[in-house]
Design goal:
113 residues; mainly beta; SH3 type barrels; 5-stranded antiparallel beta sheet; 1 helix; 5 strands; 9% helix
Length: 113
């Protein structure tokens, strides 16, 4: 069991920002196109956090051109360059899956002061 913990701690990132469900985040992802590598930004609301440790992941949802788009980002993955929090959200649940059914202003999350 200690071998697994040692292996996991080797690949975990030290500095992770405090990301909670309901926050609006900007995730910088490394994209490989042939031999080139660039960073693409995905901004949206965190609707779920799963697992813990090395397998910790967040689900980020955004609306682009009227269509909802969700992506799951493993926090300790090497292709996730940076995560920055744009605004804090005030929510009372652990999963915000109900936002999938909402459109426009109804899909907004109040800001925590």
């Amino acid at each position: 069991m200690d071998l697994v913990k040692a292996l996991n701690s080797q690949y975990m990132k030290e500095e992770l920002p405090e990301v909670k469900v309901g926050d609006t985040v900007r995730v910088h992802v490394r994209i490989k196109e042939g031999s080139r590598e660039r960073i693409q930004v995905f901004e949206g609301t965190v609707i779920a956090k799963k697992h813990g440790g090395i397998s910790e992941a967040i689900t980020v949802r955004r609306i682009s051109y009227g269509v909802g788009c969700e992506k799951v980002f493993p926090l300790h993955a090497p292709n996730v360059a940076m995560i920055e929090t744009v605004r804090k959200g005030k929510v009372r649940r652990a999963k915000l899956y109900y936002l999938r059914d909402r459109m426009g202003k109804a899909a907004k999350v109040k800001e925590r002061v």
